[in-house]
Design a protein that fits this description.
Layout lengths: L2 H28 L10 H21 L6 H24 L2 H4 L3 H23 L5 H31 L6 H28 L4 H4 L2 H15 L13 H30 L1 H22 L3 H15 L6 H12 L9 H13 L4 E6 L5 E7 L17 H6 L3 E2 H5 L13 H5 L3 E9 L2 E9 L9 H64 L3 H27 L9 E4 H11 L6 E5 L4 E4 L1 H18 L6 E8 L2 E8 L6 H6 L16 H11 L3 E7 L3 E9 L4 H14 L1
Parallel strand pairs: 7-9
Antiparallel strand pairs: 1-2, 1-5, 3-4, 4-5, 6-8, 9-10, 10-12, 11-12
EC number: 2.7.13.3
Keywords: ATP-binding, Kinase, Membrane, Nucleotide-binding, Transferase, Transmembrane, Transmembrane helix
Pfam family, one: HATPase_c
């Protein structure tokens, strides 16, 4: 033996003797306590003694003596553990219900006996080198058959056990799996290498030590607390490494097989295979869909619960609580925090509008979807508000009413195949929003765990939205109070100035000596007085949205007056006119349309038209202002457009859009907005027709009587 072989032999003897001592000590200690394994206790003790004898036998073989004894001891060890496995199956009656168990164990025992007979025959005769090589490979194959069969039986023993018996089988199955997995690698390397790997065989005693440790844990009183609980991150990373390892082994195996064929053609096939396999790995393995499939598979088979609730809650708090200049708006963070739970790549936030309907409040990674101004009517919200039901839109499309009783979903969500689920956000039995989730890469059906987690997170983000709305309302009220306080002083000063101008005009009529100066002064003072009084009247309306009076107003007169204001600007185009009469205030209606058209001009390029159209829409006249300008985001429309004192213009007062909406409301009308960034905006003003005046009056009187 060389120096290196002596080292490995000494290391092997030391580990084998350690394994023999550990296993024999455990068997002796377990003998009076064997009832802890029930009717399998005695076979387990016998198998442990056989394992200790096997360790002693292979330690003796390291010295070059007793060549047949290690093979006999290993066969006895394997037969002992096969009988133990059968007794474990019999302990819960599966040896009778699973018909293949007994034949498999008998077949493996036969292979062991056959191998033992062949090995004994080989030691009594002399053969040439070629025959001995074939005999060596045959013996290794016999061992591989028994090892693989033992591993399959151990897997079936644990995987098929009931929930009550599985904790008692966890550690014995782990010990046997480690023992035979080590032998599987040892004999595989021996078969591929054509020689006995003494370096690896020296560590067989470690397998015996691991077996002893596993059975010691199996009879420990706190064995249930010793359960291995890997985190999801560790499991996913380990599984990824396993996949990479299997892939590399497969490539090496195929390349080795091709190299045996020899020749230039085989070399070409080998290079082609390696190229295609590498390209496949680079394209498929980084795929988000493949990663999603891995995650779903591991979660389904490795963990009792689908979610790691600690990690989910930490991720939720990081997302919803992010702050700073680079933080996303609250609406986007709300959508992202819910979408992360189901690995959805995009989503929408719908929030209650002026009339109680749901409108688009925010988008997250979903810029291409078209959302109507009324995303979900108010009549469809009562079921969500009352039940908090999380809706799978695929069930709605399939017409499955049993899973979604009474749920009414708008047609645009049905037609959008990417829309996957609706998550209502309910706060104190009030619907404060709805999240629409996009379809993930790997689609699955919701289960109770999904519903529970989404419902809890939905309630949490609903409280954030409600709190944010309250804070905005308080801030707006504070700004209004400050504005009213300041405007009171402004109005006082303007009134005094207007009085002085009026007095000056009267005095000038009496005391001016030069006619030219007198006439010019009169014109100037009268114009200033009229402007100041008009400004006072306009400022007085801020905050209450009041109009002077409601009367019948011809629509064409309003359109002509507005068109006259912009007669010098070719960008303003009147696209549609109808002879209608509405109930409103002419000055207020003109003011609203002029403001909307001017906003469209400000947002558009010098060659981009702004269209004005009017048509009948049921009981209302529909005024539409359409531009192809820069557009606005859903978050801006929702949270900033109609907020007073918030302006995107330099020096802007920030009350134009707010005043326009209040004036339309004062005329019993409605102002709607549809806008897309980069595409443009559409403002729709609905004002009641004069013919519907009596109907609106009856409704108003009825509401007053009910109140």
């Amino acid at each position: 033996m060389t120096g290196s072989d002596k080292f490995w032999a000494l290391l092997g003897i030391g580990l084998d003797l350690s394994g023999a001592i550990a296993v024999a000590s455990l068997a002796i200690w377990l003998w009076p306590r064997r009832e802890r394994f029930g009717n399998v206790g005695t076979p387990v003790v016998v198998a442990l003694f056989l394992t200790a004898a096997w360790c002693l036998a292979i330690a003796s073989a390291m010295t070059g003596r007793l060549i047949l004894l290690p093979s006999l001891a290993e066969s006895a060890r394997n037969l002992g553990w096969l009988f133990v496995i059968y007794r474990f199956f019999a302990s819960d009656g599966r040896h009778a219900s699973l018909a293949p168990i007994r034949p498999v164990i008998v077949a493996l025992a036969f292979v062991e006996l056959l191998h033992l007979g062949v090995d004994a025959a080989l030691t009594r005769a002399s053969f040439d080198g070629a025959f001995l090589r074939v005999a060596f490979e045959s013996n290794v194959l016999f061992r591989l058959l028994v090892t693989v069969g033992g591993l399959v039986l151990v897997h079936n023993l644990y995987a098929g056990a009931s929930r009550e018996t599985r904790p008692g089988l966890r550690w014995p199955a782990s010990g046997l799996a480690f023992l035979w997995a080590f032998d599987l690698n040892l004999y595989t390397i021996a078969y591929l290498g054509g020689d006995w790997p003494i370096e690896i065989a020296a560590f067989r005693g470690v397998a015996a030590l691991a077996l002893a440790g596993a059975f010691l844990l199996a009879i420990a009183r706190n064995r249930d607390e010793l359960r291995l609980k890997p985190s999801r991150a560790v499991t996913f990373q380990t599984f990824s490494l396993l996949v990479i390892g299997v892939y590399l082994v497969a490539m090496v195996s195929v390349a080795q097989w091709l190299s045996y064929a020899g020749g230039d053609f085989a070399r070409l096939i080998e290079l082609t295979f390696l190229t295609l396999a590498s390209a496949f790995a680079l394209v498929v393995l980084p795929s988000r869909r493949v990663r999603g499939w891995f995650k779903v598979t591991l979660t389904k088979h490795f963990f009792q619960h689908r979610y790691d609730y600690r990690e989910e809650w930490l991720r939720f708090t990081r997302t919803i609580g992010s702050s700073g200049l680079e933080a996303k708006p609250l609406g986007e963070r709300v959508v992202q925090s819910i979408a992360d739970v189901t690995d959805s790549p995009a989503g929408l936030l719908l929030a209650p509008g002026e009339q109680g309907e749901l409108t688009l409040a925010s988008r997250w990674n979903w810029a291409e979807i078209e959302v109507p101004a009324e995303a979900m009517p108010m009549r469809a919200l009562e079921v969500f508000e009352r039940t908090g039901y999380i809706t799978d839109l695929d069930d709605i499309r399939a017409g499955d009413d049993s899973t979604s009783p009474g749920i009414v979903v708008p047609q645009w969500l049905i037609d959008e195949r990417r829309a996957w689920a609706l998550v209502p956000l309910v706060h104190y039995e009030r619907l404060v929003g709805m999240v629409v989730l996009a379809r993930p890469q790997i689609v699955r059906k919701f289960d109770w765990e999904d519903f529970d987690l989404l419902r809890v997170i939905g309630q949490q983000v609903a409280s954030y939205l409600a709190e944010n709305s309250s804070q905005e309302a308080l801030a707006e009220s504070s700004r209004f109070e400050d504005f009213h306080r300041r405007i009171a002083f402004v109005m006082h000063d303007i009134k005094n100035l207007a009085s002085q101008f009026s007095l000056l005009a009267r005095n000038a009529e009496l005391h001016a000596h030069k006619k030219e100066f007198r006439d010019d002064m009169l014109v100037t003072l009268r114009n200033s007085s009229e402007k100041l009084n008009a400004l006072i009247a306009r400022l007085s309306r801020y905050g209450n949205g009041a109009v002077e009076k409601l009367e019948q107003v011809p629509v064409l007169d309003v359109i002509d007056a507005v068109a006259q204001r912009f007669k010098d600007n070719p960008q303003v185009v009147v696209a549609e006119r109808h002879d209608l009469t509405v109930t409103g205030n002419r000055h207020s209606l003109e003011q609203v349309l002029v403001h909307l058209i001017q906003n469209g001009l400000d947002a558009s390029g010098p060659d981009s038209p702004v269209f004005l159209a009017v048509s009948a829409d049921g009981l209302n006249a529909r005024f539409e202002v359409l531009d192809a300008g820069c557009g606005m985001s859903a978050e801006f429309v929702r949270n900033r457009l109609f907020k007073p004192f918030v302006s995107t213009k330099n020096g802007g007062f920030g009350i134009g859009a707010f005043e326009a909406r209040e004036l339309v409301r004062a005329m019993r009308g409605r102002l709607e907005v549809e806008s897309r960034e980069g595409l443009g905006s559409r403002f729709v003003v609905r004002v009641p027709l004069a013919a519907a005046q009596d109907l609106y009056d009856n409704i108003a009187n009825k509401d007053q009587r009910v109140a």
